[in-house]
Specification:
about 350 residues; mainly alpha; 13 helices
Length: about 350
């Protein structure tokens, strides 16, 4: 199956090589989250200042930095609310796009051809079903998390008394919460992987809903549970290797792209100082827009570099599932066309007389 997935990826991306296919697959890979270099990204923690303001210091006095920009507490609170609402709206939009794009990516890998507009219109209905299921799963996960973690928070908050020195007892207080959190996260990850790898193909081929797709998947898993466990274990190993490899590739791409971007930025800053531009509402907005455009361009370049990941892992799931799902097997291994029928021979002419 791994060999089939590698061969499928090679043929789809190189026989023949079409940059338009790479560009479209990069969009789907980013939209679905199939392209991920999280294993290779390390974020430095923020430096903690050595001197913190005392509890008796007035917050309004410590907010002089905000006041010099003309921001009061009401404005700051409004900005925070707008940021939170905007983040939630963007998250919902992204989940909706990712839900439809998941079916589009499955079809693109299965057919070895990626199209966007027609495929988007074709998978709207199933994508909306999958979107609703993901929202329901998120609501259930939040409710279960609240029931699990709130009782565990009580002893933790009690242990975090003011002026308490860190010690072994304080660390042991966090162990139950960490253990429950890791178990809970593992269960959610397992559900997500099974849904995108197996439930989505059932929904796409049989044109059924999410719950019916899960029902059919459970029936298949009961027949051969160890095969699915082996698949998940092998996928973890492959994901670690792919994350390391393409993290290096992504870093090279980003560094190579940042060099001309840095040169252009320096030139723009020098020219802005030369004409006497200062920081105001217009220049701050322009800088934010430029930063967003640069970030989106870098993200897309990383997506282009990691297109093989976006094709390989769906192909690996497809070839594994095709051995256990007859309808998918018929799509992956189509029957060869029948040879043309040979017309019957005309009778030999009878001799004269």
């Amino acid at each position: 199956m791994i060999g089939n997935a590698f061969e499928h990826t090679r043929k789809q991306l190189s026989e023949p090589f079409r940059f338009s296919q790479w560009a479209r697959l990069a969009v789907l890979g980013l939209a679905t989250g199939e392209i991920s270099s999280g294993g290779g990204c390390n974020f430095r923690s923020l430096d903690i200042p050595s001197h913190l303001p005392s509890h008796s210091q007035n917050f309004a006095d410590s907010g002089g930095v905000f006041s010099q920009w003309g921001l009061d507490l009401a404005t700051i609170a409004s900005l925070i609310v707008v940021a939170i609402v905007g983040f939630l709206v963007l998250a919902l939009v992204w989940i909706y796009i990712a839900s439809i794009s998941r079916f589009m990516l499955f079809e693109a890998v299965l057919r070895k051809d990626c199209e966007l507009t027609e495929s988007w219109n074709r998978w709207q209905r199933q994508g909306l079903r999958y979107f609703g299921w993901q929202l329901g799963l998120a609501a259930i996960a939040l409710a279960v998390a609240a029931m699990l973690f709130i009782p565990l928070l009580i002893p933790v908050l009690a242990a975090l008394r003011p002026n308490q020195e860190p010690g072994l007892g304080l660390m042991l207080t966090f162990l139950p919460m960490i253990s429950v959190f890791l178990t809970f996260a593992l269960v959610l990850l397992l559900i997500t992987v099974l849904a995108k790898d197996f439930v989505v193909p059932i929904m796409a081929i049989d044109n059924v809903g999410v719950l019916e797709g899960w029902s059919r998947l459970f029936a298949m898993m009961k027949a051969d549970p160890w095969a699915y466990a082996g698949y998940l274990g092998m996928k973890i190993i492959l994901a670690i290797g792919a994350a390391v490899m393409f993290a290096i590739v992504s870093a090279i791409v980003v560094v190579a792209a940042l060099i001309p971007i840095g040169i252009v930025t320096v030139i723009v800053v020098i020219m802005a100082k030369a004409v006497g531009l200062a920081w105001n509402a217009f220049t701050i907005t322009a800088a934010i827009v430029a930063a967003v455009i640069v970030f989106a361009a870098l993200l897309y370049l990383v997506g282009l570099a990691c297109v093989p990941v976006a094709v390989f892992f769906p192909a690996y799931a497809m070839y594994f599932f095709a051995e256990r799902y007859a309808a998918l097997r018929a799509q992956v291994y189509p029957a060869p066309p029948l040879p043309p029928a040979i017309p019957p021979l005309s009778p030999m002419p009878q001799p004269a007389g």
